Amino acid sequence: MPLSVYILALSVFALGTSEFMLSGLLQPVADDMDVSIPRAGLLISAFAIGMVVGAPLLAVATLRLPRRTTLVALIAVFGLGQVAGALAPGYAVLFVSRVVSALACAGFWAVGASVAVAMVPATSRARALAVMIGGLSIANVIGVPAGAFLGEGLGWRSAFWAVGAASAVALVGIVTLVPRIPLPAERPRLSGELRVFRDRRVWLSIGTIMLTAGGVFCAFSYLAPLLTDVARLDVGWVPPVLALFGVGALIGTALGGRFADAHLFGVLIGGMAADVVVLVAFALLGRYAVAAVLLSFLLGISCFCTAPALNAQMFDVAAAAPTLAAATTTSAFNLGNAAGPWLGGAVIDAGLGYPATAWAGALMTAGAIGLAVVSLRLHRRTPGSRVVGRSDSATDPVRSEA
Q: Which residues, 6 or more positions from 147, have their beta carbon under 8 angstroms from its beta carbon?
């Protein structure tokens, strides 16, 4: 793996910490801003909406710009967004700062993923994306629990300052260690990249990603109150459990990256089925402290196991438009990240309780499995199609997908 891919992973660590850390800070943010927990949860949706809008817009706007310069500008804007959040005098300013940070984060994901894929052969795409996503997993192991710990001890604003500092470190790494990426001899054209959206497999992939992410975030966004109010754990348990989720995410990313190149649909469908099982178990057993802790770990494994495959599938079906493929993947994930917390908040506001968020998440994920099965059938019917990362050979790669 090129060193620059690991630098991108370091940057994603900062991005991911900011995106996910509010799951452990909802109570102090709600108390400080004098809003309800579901309304504080909308800050997670605000970030996700910014990612949805920002990914395609910034991908198009920067299509012909130097890649490294674009990455530097985006990580700088992201860091400034964290500073604005730390200084926010009220809910509205915090909300706007989250959207601005998300726009920069989305652009970084789109450009960074296309750079990572461009620097490795087709047989290593899922691995390169897994390394980059690994930064997100480490954010869940270290960044998110650290944010919750800082929020508990020094106030939630200290977590935003910490992410701002991490963004500055990432900026230095990009400037000094990421090489200049030459633009192609023939400048990419938006009209050419947009043609990939005529392929229904692209839309199936979008739907699969959206429902998978939404299903997990429907429950994960309210994990902290589920642990304290339902499982009756002390608030001091929240950071360690979030760290345990992150350890599971790191394991899941490694497993998914290891096997997705050779068994794309096997990893996709198997991982999503595991998501459903874990979420249903959470709904049924979440009131037991030991079960809640164990299931948090297993949810990290199952949901992040599918991430490399979901990314790689989009690059496979939209290979002719790598920049928009990365942007579309980012938007699809964050459509789910926005819909999930919104649906979870609606379930809570309806008086169904925190465990019901896991039931709703399981239903969304079951829908994702259905779309993945349809995608697999189309994949088998498409002449010359192959699983991402596998070289063509006399052996039919689809039939070995079992």
A: 17, 21, 24, 25, 159, 162, 163
